[in-house]
Amino acid sequence: MIGNTKKCLITGGAGFIGSHLARRLLAQGAEVTVLDNLFTGSKSNLYDLMDDPRFTFLVHDVTQPFWGQFDEIYNLACPASPIHYQHNPVETTKTSILGVMNALELALKTKARVFHTSTSECYGDPDVHPQPESYWGNVNTIGLRSCYDEGKRAAETLCADYRRQYGVDVRMIRIFNTYGPRMHPHDGRVVSNFAMQALQNRDITVFGTGRQTRSFQYVDDLVRAIELFMAKPRAETDRFFAAKGFGVPVLNIGNPGEFTMLELAEMTLKLIPESKSRIVFHELPKDDPKRRRPDISLAKEFLGWEPSVPLSEGLPKTIEYFRSIVEGR
Ligand code: NAD
Ligand code: UDP
Fold first, then answer.
1. 209 vs 215: CA distance, rounded Å
2. How far is the CA of 265 from the centre of ligand 2 (A)?
3. Which tens digit of pLDDT belongs to each residue from 182-232?
4. What pLDDT, on a 0 to 100 scale, did the predictor assign at position 329?
5. Ligand 2 atom nearest 83 alpha carbon
6. pTM for this one?
7. Which ligand 2 atom is nearest residue 121's CA?
8. Which numbered atom of ligand 1 lies nearest the CA of 39?
9. Ligand 2 pocket, mutate which of 139, 146, 207, 290 (most atoms under 8 A from CB)
10. Which pLDDT score is estimated for 247?
């Protein structure tokens, strides 16, 4: 620790998850610097923090090196929704790989602890269900989703090797579909799409048959897991993951409650009873995973963590957020 106050850097901190994490770290008493190129994030996610003397915002692209003395570096920078990461796929792969490399290089020089946000997309279209951390995945290397999936997989490899080769204290989580207030209303992800469509009386666009599944995690549960993981001493972390046969600390963080997209559409419509929207079916995007559910036994054992907000509780709060946007509140 530098002085008495923990200094934290969040790359991608103007985005959905990063803006929640920034608030949580400030609430712990930390100094927080957010570094973001505002590709999918927005300063409006952080407006209320701008006057806090412990908060700094920098516009920067993580594909270029960055510098600063921090105790903890949280690497979140990367577009996360399929329409955004497929908009400029070469840039997405660069962001994943060069971004984490720049974070790891900084940590190596300054002895900071690193937290890297990986993804359930590392499992691709899984043929093991639910997915444990030991599953290596089923991923297309040359498809439309590959820029994100393979970028994130290569980033994991870099984290593993900076730890083994140089001793950098890095921890990774594979995040499963996470939702909540401050999601971008037009980022194309299913929760925001269905909520905005229902609130604006537009058709609810279910892709494929709607029988594909996802497991939806409320953002507060995720941020709590990040906090617990980063607070674990290094020696205990090394011992636990070595005993489990992993070279590096990696955990699935998600809510095992599994829903079909049709169920999600119906839940959304029930929560917005005045909506005149109807469900319509569109073509399923290529390589769309058929099912996804985390095995969270490792996180339960190591962190004593499990999610506490079911979809039935988190979805109404999220719809309320989107309602405030639609009504211009
Ligand atoms: P988001 O799009 O809201 O946030 C990403 C942030 O990164 C944005 O503020 C964006 O402007 C910034 N960014 C993108 N490219 C950048 C670059 N080159 N340089 C600097 N900043 C850049 O997405 P999110 O949902 O908050 O996701 C945050 C992280 O969590 C991402 O790494 C994502 O892959 C990972 N993740 C999210 C989910 C989820 O369900 N939300 C699931 C798995 C993994
Ligand atoms: N989806 C859908 N309608 C939409 C947006 C997405 O049916 O308007 C489906 C999509 O095909 C996928 C699931 O919802 O099966 C989750 O999509 P999202 O983009 O939110 O996340 P990811 O596919 O990355 O898990």
1. 17
2. 11
3. 999 998 999 999 999 999 999 999 999 999 999 999 999 999 999 999 999
4. 82
5. 19
6. 0.97
7. 24
8. 11
9. 207
10. 79
Q: Which helix (H) or strand (E) holds 18?
A: helix 16-27
Which listed ligand is nearest to 254 at the C-alpha?
Answer: 1
Up-side HSE of residue 198: CA atoms within 13 Å toward CB? 26
Catalytically annotated residues = 148
CB 18 near ligand 1, within 6 Å: yes
78 ligand 1 Cβ < 6 A: yes
**Domain residue ranges of the chain, discontinuous segments joined by +:** 7-179+216-255+293-308
Residue with tokens 């003397």: 53
Strand pairing class (213-215; 217-218): unpaired
> Tell me: the pLDDT tens digits for 299-308?
999 999 999 9
Ligand 1: which of 9, 11, 17 to mutate, judged by most atoms within 8 Å of the beta carbon?
17
CATH number belonging to the domain at 7-179+216-255+293-308, selected among 2.30.30.20, 3.40.50.10260, 1.10.357.140, 3.40.50.720: 3.40.50.720
Radius of gyration of the chain (CA): 19
Contact between 204 and 270 under an 8 Å Cβ cutoff? The reply is no
Q: Tell me which ligand sits closest to the C-alpha of residue 204.
A: 2
**Residue 173, class by beta-carbon neighbours within 10 Å (0-12 exposed, 13-18 middle, 19+ buried)?**
buried
Ligand nearest to the CA of 19: 1
Residues 6+ apart with CB under 8 A from 233: none
Average model confidence (pLDDT) across the chain? 97
d(CA 5, CA 249): 26
Round to whole Å and give the CA distance between 32 and 22.
7
Q: Which ligand 2 atom minimizes the distance to the CA of 194? A: 8
Among 40, 159, 218, 222, say which to mutate for ligand 1: greatest number of ligand atoms within 8 Å of CB: 40
